[in-house]
């Protein structure tokens, strides 16, 4: 899998440079050949049923017409629904249209509901659409999304924004593909937000264009990548035999206000099973009348937050912390400290509501990771959740820069961003994680990695990936995604982290 993620502007730059270096029409021909080969691979050879090809007015449509012509030439039954535009097609698309017409592909005006196809090839729109699909384009997408057969999108599922992973709106629609073959380079929008539900399995074909030949766009310039273990596995070193609990750091969860103990305990369990040497809950507003012990996890030490010695410990602030004046005071104290810090949940809401806490966080003298879900991110940025979700990468970048911290914007395809603009999009996980307490476990896990000396960036990447991988492990054992509980995650995280450490030794 190509892990670098290119923006549409970068893809256009690669396309321009390659087009000027190659004979006319080469790239579209290559895109058509790559997609034809991939389609036949998916179909396990030449099918007997009809392949339906949707071709739009632009060059994405040209790619689709190439595929239609290729499949027809190989003896497949091909139907083409072509959506012409107002203007003339590009010369390459016009040539592809003529090729498809010259062969045995059958052009149809409308899709008949109930007609069966072995595969739909979606070449309506690629990186071009700047406005929501309407009229016949929308009807075609609605018809395709009702079909039960596999759908192969060319370059990008039609109607999806390749940069952001949002369906182009307002009130837009996008093809829900089973597979996407994407050209010239991988794209962030295929891996985050709506993209996770629309792209299906993503296959990258570079069309023979070596990125290093393309001036101005190379690995150095791709500012986004997929989050995979090579980015952080070096931190998961096997343990030295001559070590003790002090070697693996203390995590203190600041939270668990009366009535909200569960969130703090889940975070503490996340930290414990991810290898922190000692784990505390510093319970906010607890005068001693609250919980004294986690009966299933007696290793967790529970203390009142007032007077707790946070110095020299990694603080996970937020799970079940509430918004009391005491919570605000304690948060200000840890933000002013210099230890590793992870800020989650209620602590993020307190920061969002207070310019003073924002300034203290930005000045925090130590590694800092923030783990907002989209609503918390929206509060921090002073916008609405749809605005955050409309561009998850930019929202995460903006927050990281403003608050001078590594930011994990949670949700499908979690986005991890650094203040310098570097971004990673997570690859692991499933909707089983959409359950109460799963974020608390993530916070504790991140705190444990920080406590074990992982730098903030690697700790955030590692925590997000391990959290998702643990959920995948549980689903593979039949524990979800429906009904997966946050309390099941810590043990699965332990298994994933140990597997990672064992691999890093070999
Ligand atoms: N150049 C090459 O050699 C290569 C190109 N490649 C391929 O080209 C794709 C990019 O092609 P592209 O730039 O033509 O954009 P594309 O996605 O086809 O859409 C543009 C068309 O859609 C129209 N349109 C837009 N929105 C609309 C709407 N809501 N409803 C209706 N119409 C709408 C828009 O019309 P307009 O806005 O001008 O009115 C225009 O006609 C790329 O994704 C890849 O597949 C690769 O194979 C590599 C080689
Ligand atoms: K498409």
Automatic annotation (TrEMBL):
Binding locations of (6S)-NADPHX: 59-63, 126-132, 155, 263, 320, 373, 440
Q: Which GO terms describe its molecular function?
A: ADP-dependent NAD(P)H-hydrate dehydratase activity; ATP binding; metal ion binding; NAD(P)HX epimerase activity
Q: Which Gene3D superfamilies does the record cross-reference, listed alphabetically?
A: 3.40.1190.20, YjeF N-terminal domain (3.40.50.10260)
What's an example Gene Ontology biological process for this entry?
metabolite repair
The cofactors it requires, by name, are:
Mg(2+); K(+)
Q: Does the record carry Methyltransferase as a key word?
A: no
* CC cofactor note: Binds 1 potassium ion per subunit.
- Tell me where on the tree of life, at the top rank, the source sits: Bacteria
Give the EC number(s) under which this enzyme is classified. 4.2.1.136, 5.1.99.6
Reactions it catalyzes: (6R)-NADHX = (6S)-NADHX; (6S)-NADPHX + ADP = AMP + phosphate + NADPH + H(+); (6R)-NADPHX = (6S)-NADPHX; (6S)-NADHX + ADP = AMP + phosphate + NADH + H(+)
The record's section on SUPFAM superfamilies has: Ribokinase-like, YjeF N-terminal domain-like
**InterPro entries from the UniProt entry:** CARKD (IPR000631), Nnr (IPR030677), Ribokinase-like (IPR029056), YjeF_N_dom (IPR004443), YjeF_N_dom_sf (IPR036652)
The YjeF C-terminal domain sits at 228-500
Keyword set, alphabetical order: ATP-binding, Isomerase, Lyase, Metal-binding, Multifunctional enzyme, NAD, NADP, Nucleotide-binding, Potassium
Supply the CDD domains for this chain.
Answer: YXKO-related (cd01171)
Cite the binding residues for K(+).
60, 122, 158
Residues holding AMP = 410-414, 439
Domain (YjeF N-terminal): residue spans on this chain: 11-215
User: Can you state the subunit structure given in the record?
Assistant: Homotetramer.
**PANTHER family xrefs:** ATP-DEPENDENT (S)-NAD(P)H-HYDRATE DEHYDRATASE (PTHR12592:SF0), ATP-DEPENDENT (S)-NAD(P)H-HYDRATE DEHYDRATASE FAMILY MEMBER (PTHR12592)
Q: Please state which protein family the record places this protein in.
A: Belongs to the NnrD/CARKD family.
Instruction: Outline what the protein does.
Output: Catalyzes the epimerization of the S- and R-forms of NAD(P)HX, a damaged form of NAD(P)H that is a result of enzymatic or heat-dependent hydration. This is a prerequisite for the S-specific NAD(P)H-hydrate dehydratase to allow the repair of both epimers of NAD(P)HX. Bifunctional enzyme that catalyzes the epimerization of the S- and R-forms of NAD(P)HX and the dehydration of the S-form of NAD(P)HX at the expense of ADP, which is converted to AMP. This allows the repair of both epimers of NAD(P)HX, a damaged form of NAD(P)H that is a result of enzymatic or heat-dependent hydration.
In its UniProt entry, what is this protein called?
A: Bifunctional NAD(P)H-hydrate repair enzyme
Name the species this protein comes from. Answer: Massilia forsythiae
At the highest ranks, the source species' classification is:
Bacteria, Pseudomonadati, Pseudomonadota, Betaproteobacteria, Burkholderiales
